[in-house]
Amino acid sequence: MQNLDRKKCSIGVFDSGVGGLTVVKEIRKKLPEESIVYFGDSARVPYGTKSKDTILRFAEEDINFLQSFDVKVIVSACFSVSSNALEELKKEFSIPIIGMIDPGVRALMNSRFKRIGVIGTNATIESGTFEIKLKEKFKDVEIYSAACPLFVPLAEEGRLKGEIPELVAKEYLSPLIAQNIDALIFGCTHYPLLYSVIKNVVGDKVKIIEPGKEVALLLENFLEDNSMRAEKTGSLNIYLSDIPRNFRETVVNFLGEDPGEIQLVNLKNC
Q1: Burial class (CB in 10 A: 0-12, 13-18, 19+), 15
Q2: Residue 162 DSSP code
Q3: Is 9 noted as a catalytic residue in this protein?
Q4: Which member of 9, 148, 188, 270 is catalytic?
C-alpha cells in the first residue's frame, strides 16, 4: 500500500464483546478524522475465562476478519488477548498491532506511584503481564492485583450505580485498599463504565489509570510517524458475532453515542 492509500484506510479494533467500544470512544475523541472498523466477538464473550490457546485462536480469527477491510493498524482492545497472546500475534501478522498493556504502563510514566493496583479479568490477572511490564519500567514499585469478573456483566447489564455494584466493588477492591495503593489500573475495557462506583470505593487519593485514553495518544503518534493520518471526517462501522438482547442500549452506554447500523457477522463464513 502506498502512503496515500494508507491514509484513507481504517483503523481496526477488536474485543471479545462490546467493551472495546470504550476504547473506540477515546479514539474518536482524539482522532475524529479516522475511520474505524470494530469487531466485537459477542457470541464468544468473555475471553477472560478461556485458555491461552483458545484466546490466541479467537484473536487470530478476529484479526483475519479485520484484515479483510485492508485496515492500516489494529488495536487489540481486549486485555485478555493483550496479556496472553499479543507477542504471538505480532510474530504471526505483519500488520501493526497495538495492545492494551503497554499503554497502561505508559500512562504511569513520569509518575511517582509506588503501590499500584491492577484489576482485570481472570486471564489478564493470572497472566501476570502487567506486573512484569510495570517492574521492567519502574524500580521499587509494589504491584497488587485482583480479578474482578463480575464487573463485566454489571457493565453490560447497565448496573452502573446503586447498592449491588457498590457491594461488588467493595468485595473486590478492599484487599487493594488495605495495601494502601496510590494508583489503580483498569485492566478491562468494561471498567470505565463503573468509574464512579470504583472511584467512590477507592477514594480520591488513588489515581485511576484508563489505558484506553493512552491508546488514543499512542495511535495518534503512530499514524503521524508513519504518514498514515487521515484527512477527512471518519466513519464507524460496527460488526458483532451475535446481537445480544438490549444490545443497542448497551452499545450506547459503552460508545457514548448512537452507533447507527450494527452488522451481524459469522466468522466461519469469512
Answers
A1: buried
A2: S
A3: no
A4: 188
Give the residue among 154, 158, 150, 198 at the shortest CA–CA distance from 176: 198
Q: What residue segments make up the domains of the chain, in order of their start?
A: 3-99+213-269, 102-211
Q: Render 22-62 in DSSP notation, one character per residue.
A: HHHHHHHHH-TTS-EEEEE-TTS--STTS-HHHHHHHHHHH
CA distance 82 to 206: 25
* CATH number attached to the domain at 102-211: 3.40.50.1860
Prediction pTM value: 0.92
Q: Do domains 3-99+213-269 and 102-211 have the same CATH topology?
A: yes
Q: Which amino acid appears at position 112 of this protein?
A: R
Short-list 26, 6, 21, CA closest to 190: 21
CATH of domain 3-99+213-269: 3.40.50.1860
78 catalytic residue (yes or no): yes
Q: How confident is the model at residue 269 (pLDDT cuts 50, 70, 90)?
A: low
Q: Which of 4, 60, 11 is closest to 216 using CA atoms?
A: 11
Counting DSSP H helices and E strands in the chain, the numbers are 13, 10
Query: Which strand (E) or helix (H) includes residue 163?
Result: helix 163-178
Return the H-helix or E-strand segment holding 153: helix 151-156
Each residue of 139-186: pLDDT tens digit? 889 999 999 999 988 998 889 999 999 999 999 999 999 999 999 999
Residue-level pLDDT at 3: 46
Q: Got the DSSP string for 105-125?
A: HHTTTT----EEEEEE-HHHH
- Write out the three cell numbers for 10: 481504517
Which of 9, 78, 148, 270 does the annotation list as catalytic?
78
